[in-house]
Amino acid sequence: MNDPNLTDRLYECGAVFAKDIDKQMSPIISFLLTGILPLIIFIALGNYMAKKLMEHAGGKNSMAFGMGKSNAKIYVQSSEEIRFSDVAGEDEAKENLSEIVDYLHNPKKYTDVGASMPKGVLLVGPPGTGKTMLAKAVAGESNVPFFSMSGSEFVEMFVGMGASKVRDLFGQAKEKAPCIVFIDEIDAIGKKRDGQMGGNDEREQTLNQLLTEMDGFEGNNGVIILAATNRPESLDPALTRPGRFDRRVPVELPDFAGREAILKVHAKKIKASDDVDLHTIARMASGASGAELANIINEAALRAVRSGRTVVNESDLEESIEVVIAGYQKKNAVLSDQEKKVVAYHEIGHALVAALQSHSAPVQKITIIPRTSGALGYTMQVEQGDKYLMTKKELENKIATFTGGRAAEEIVFGEITTGVSNDIEQATKIARAMITRYGMTDEFDMVAMENVTNQYLGGDTSLSCSADTQKEIDEKVVQLVKAEHEKARKILAENREKLDELAMYLYEKETITGDEFMDILDRK
Predict the structure, then answer these.
(1) Exposure string for 161-189, b = 16+ CB within 10 A, e = fewer
(2) Which of 20, 65, 72, 253 has its CA 20 to 30 A from that of 12?
């Protein structure tokens, strides 16, 4: 502000003026302190950290900040280590892997004959069947170093880091041979190389390095590689050929005897009452994996605690199977009388159609208590044993059973409801598979119209036929389901008295057993 009289006014007001000297730092000193000194400190600190990392990594195969260093976990033996005796239901897989453990303990027994152990063993199967547990059992049985790493841990942000980790992992393994390297979920780096532009160069370089390490000019004497995956069909053929993964070990869902053995292993961890029959529980848990069976045992123990008991009884285990299948009982779901009656007739419709057909699984339990999965009720059928083949008649009967609920609603109420969505889905799935995959139709004979992918992860399907054929398939599916729906209606119409009697009994009781159901059905 331009004010020439400011000084005079300050004097008139009595302001005191003093002379001050402005001291400025030398520009050279300022540049050294603000520019050069921080740079020197940063470089010195970086060298110090790199030196420490080199010392920690053994001074080789280590990139800046350890990005190329393998972080494989070396298995340390403990008092809680898993043995083969802790793994049940997978006898063939255990036999294959115990041979490898025996080779590591007594290699001379095999070399005298001229036999050599597989370089790699690939464990394949659905989730929860115990692939990782089998690898841990190998670690517990063999007194050799065991390196464990996930396939996703090889994938890095920078190209070349994953390959460096593979080199470092095998470098450590060779030093400690004989040893075992376990790579879980190997499909993260072992997918087929498609050669398309824009592919993942980092993953492909990692895979190339793994292929070289497994079967390069330098042999990996004494290093055995275990790998696990749910998607064997997605692996690169160069990885699964003999000489790399010589042996494929299927770890499938357990059969009836396997389920009972798994339940016995997990039942040792809980306090069970004398009335517990694991034979019956194993039959009810058809199709369950090892992880699901362990969960069933744990859910039963939790239910016993909630009930204020210190031991687990048969009812706890039966209820835990229902929890795994259909979810928990909904405490606050209150159905109106009319809805409750509709659900009772619907479920008895399923059970009655199943019971009055030959080649159908016996009814174990019927309930109209809503569950958290969204089911307002369900009918549980339990096979007497494992079935590995299904006839055309048995599949048609299953479709008729699924349509029995809707058929009962039509006969009794003359109305249809929204409670059949899951029934429709299951019936359509079976009918389509009969026509497109099982060749159970005269028109298409033994021609596959559908391909299955990811068989261990739900079995996604894709049609491999023309649009005209697809239209014909749809017509055949509709015809098949309609025919079985009509058969279910006829069965229920002919047994209307029993349908009413059983539905009213279920309406009153809410839950009935298969024995109670059969007693009323057989009553004259």
Answers:
(1) bbbbbbbbbbebbbeeebbbbbbbbbbbb
(2) 20
Alpha-carbon 203 to chain mean position: 23
For residue 434, pLDDT beyond 90: yes
The reported pLDDT for the residue numbered 154 is 80
Q: Any idea which residue has 């299951």 for tokens? A: 426
347 included as an active-site residue? yes
Q: How far is CA 158 from the centre of its chain?
A: 30
The 10s digit of each residue's pLDDT in 137-146 is 888 888 788 8
Distance CA 197, CA 187 (A): 20
Q: Where are the alpha helices (DSSP H) in 229-289?
A: 237-240, 256-267, 278-284
pLDDT band at 78 (very low <50, low <70, confident <90, very high): very low
CB 322 within 8 A of CB 288: no
What is the rounded CA–CA span in Å between residue 83 and residue 141?
6
The CA distance from 127 to 229, in Å, is: 9
Mean pLDDT score, 40-52: 78
Length of the chain equals 524
Range 35-57 average pLDDT: 73
Q: Across-strand partners of 235?
A: 191
Q: What does the alpha-carbon distance between residue 206 and residue 210 come to, in Å, rounded to a whole number?
A: 6
Task: Write down the residue that tokens 């958290």 correspond to.
Answer: 372
Q: In what order do the strands lie in the sheet with 511-513?
A: 378-381, 363-367, 511-513
The two structure tokens encoding residue 99? 């041979």
CA 337-339-342 angle, to 5 degrees, is 110
The pLDDT assigned to 410 comes to 94
Characterize the bridge pairing of strands 179-184 and 146-150.
parallel
Query: How many C-beta atoms lie closer than 10 Å to residue 143's C-beta?
Result: 11
